[in-house]
Specification:
Keywords: Membrane, Transmembrane, Transmembrane helix. By secondary structure, the protein is α/β, with parallel strands linked by helices. Helix content is 33%, strand content 16%. It is built from six helices and ten strands.
Length: 277
Amino acid sequence: MTIGTGASARRAIGRGRAWAARRIAAARPGRAAALVAAILAGSVAGVGAEAARATPVYTSELAVQRVTICVDAGAACWTPQIDAALLQTMFDPAGIRLVLPAPIELPDFDFTLSGGEVDAFAALEDFSAALGVPPTAAHTAWIGGTPEIAGNTIGLAYVGAALRPYGVMQATPDFSLGASTALFAHKLGHILGARHDGDGNLAPVSGFIMQPVPSATPATTFSTSSLEAFAASPLPGPPGTFATAVPAPAAGGLLALALGALALVRRRRLSSPAGSS
């Protein structure tokens, strides 16, 4: 007897109990105890089989380093926030196991402002310059938090740039944790080579994480087009890559912090520099 999940599981369990009661009532006294044991064993086996089917198979690993960006020697800081378990489920279909170290801090960043808000393009370029070129075979993406971004964008990332696996995103309290996680996944999707759904691919323009305009209910799955892009990305490493610590970028000035994490994406399409989105 295989037990599923949710309402169907409850119905299945109810039918199973009724069936078991009839079998036990009809059994001779000497067989009742053995029958109970057999029924229980079958139920446990069913649950085990269901769990085995639900267990993801990881064929690669990727570290995602959240970066707390601060100004004025730490007077104000912004850290991307995520639900780590939810984020992992988003990448399970791609077979990518995410490694999420504690955030590190960029302590004295100088944002370029436009109308009192952050210029996303300048922030991404300066963030990339501050971190420098990542170590050879780092298999790591870096995503940093920012204050309010100017215009109609809330994040920017290089698309599939192996030597610049970087993204920035507005890390303000405007987003629920679920929305932040979906937006964080969107930025990471760009870093892994996925463009917006419908942009040079056959994916629908809504319903999936890489949709160009976020929906009221955050998407939690990637389109087939995005998964195909991830499969072609050289950024993830083989299983076992992160048996040791995640390597740091070549640039200095990063301090370890035991903090949380956040994320975000673009509200609508903008013209953007080549290789960024």
